[in-house]
Amino acid sequence: MADGSWREARLPSRASADVSDEEALILAFAPDAAMADSEYADSALALYRLARERSGFQQTAGTFAEWASLMSDPEKQAAMLNYVQKGAQGPALGDTLARNRPNWLPERSDELRSSPLVARIAPDDLPTLLGRLYPEEQRKRWSITFEQENDDHEEPRTMDGRVDPATFFERLHDWWKKEARKERVQSDRDAYPEDFHPRLLTDQSGDDERIGWFTFFALGIFRTIGRSDDQQHRNFIAAAVRDGWWAEMASAQLPDSPEPWVRRLEDFAQADAWRIEFPQWRRALVDLYVVARWLPEYIDLALTLPAIVRKHGSITLSDVWRPSASPLWQRRGLEGAPLTQSLGLGANWLVREAVRHNVWSVEDSTIMRPYGWASTARVRSLFANNLGIDLGPEANMDLSPEIYAQVEAHIGDRAIFLGDLDLPLQIVAHGRRVEVLQALLHGPTPFDFDNNTSTDDDEDWAS
């Protein structure tokens, strides 16, 4: 290992040329005893990685927390905090450190905020880090602030102590009016690989069209992968593009010419294969094959869907994505394998992103608004535990109209959130803006409310 000892294989060295983005974040704070000697290269590094696969080394938040308890180097401490902010297991690690705080991590968020340990973290990202490391403090802070500033009137809450839904959604809308432009940029940057954007889909043709739509559907399918985030989906596609096989697989003429797919499966099945990056995404290759096999039909379905909704009124997305079996598509003669299970809540994400990025016309986007709301576990928990709205125990793409109806019932046409549908709801529910969620639930938001709720964006998207 890098410390000169012999033990089980764990991480490659910092000098390795083939480390992934996730590995690079981990290597920045990993102890030398967990890394390979820098002399490992080429075939030796491949052998080391193969040994690591069979060593049983657990690259988990628990392991990282053990390293944190022994850490004395400020550079590594700062790198670990950077991982809490950016890493795939950042939320889990932040929760572990919050419960078992190492002696170098300040007891109070104000102390960390002014510490050199966070000097390299962007000011806009710091609240998320503090929310992960000091969740109880952040909750109490907003609650106390609210109580002090509102002695003369009572917070609108239901009899059981939950937040009034209208108050919550109004606050969320006010926050989004102020932050939408910045949050949209960040969301798109996290979600989309370089050289891809949904707004380009309807302007492309030939192989470019196939690759673009294949990528769009793939990003929807990847949303069924548990304990993952937008950046990981993007990074998998970026790695595939760099390796040269993403375009090959998207452009393959299936089922007549499956060679690109067979080659990729053979590469994954090599006896000397050492890299197991993105294992969950690899398992999605069967679903991606289905997309590539029926891609022209799925493109037609996506572009025609608003017309189907206009004709039939209320529809269910689970029925829509069974083109060969659904009566909705009989007159059009669409054929194709079902994608309902493959897409899951990704079906709602596809609708939301198509609305946000003008894949459809404004009129068609207006019709599709009720279908761009994903009933993720955290959204269901937020609704049930804080707003008293029961969406049921399981995720379901067909719950989308119910979520939209709930929001619309409380804040009217502002429910479209300037055309971004559930994006602000997903951002606060999934921990990207912990401090904002605490403010929405427990007290005044950290910005001035604007009582004028009509904006140009509101009017552009009003039906």
In terms of per-residue confidence, which ranges show pLDDT below 50 for 5 or more consecutive residues? 142-154, 447-463
Q: How big is the Rg?
A: 24 Å
End-to-end Cα distance, whole Å, is 64 Å
Approximately how much beta-strand content do the residues carry?
Answer: under 5%
> Which secondary-structure class do the elements indicate?
mainly alpha
Name the helicity range.
55-70%
- What's the mean pLDDT score? 85
Shape: flat
Order of helices and strands: HHHHHHHHHHHHHHHHHHHHHHHHH
Number of β-strand runs: 0
User: What's the number of helices?
Assistant: 25
In short:
With 463 residues, the chain is mainly α. It is 55% helix and 0% strand.
Q: Care to describe what's here?
A:
By secondary structure, this protein is mostly helical. The protein folds into three domains: 21-116, no CATH class; 134-180 and 373-463, no CATH class; 196-363, no CATH class. It is 55% helix and 0% strand. It contains 25 helices and no strands. It has helices spanning 21-27, 42-53, 61-69, 74-86, 90-99, 109-113, 126-133, 135-149, 165-191, 206-221, 230-243, 246-251, 259-268, 279-283, 285-293, 295-312, 317-320, 340-343, 346-356, 362-368, 377-387, 400-411, 423-429, 434-442, 456-461. Helix 4 (74-86) crosses helix 5 (90-99), helix 4 (74-86) crosses helix 7 (126-133) and helix 9 packs parallel to helix 11 (230-243). Residues 142-154 and 447-463 have low confidence and may be disordered.
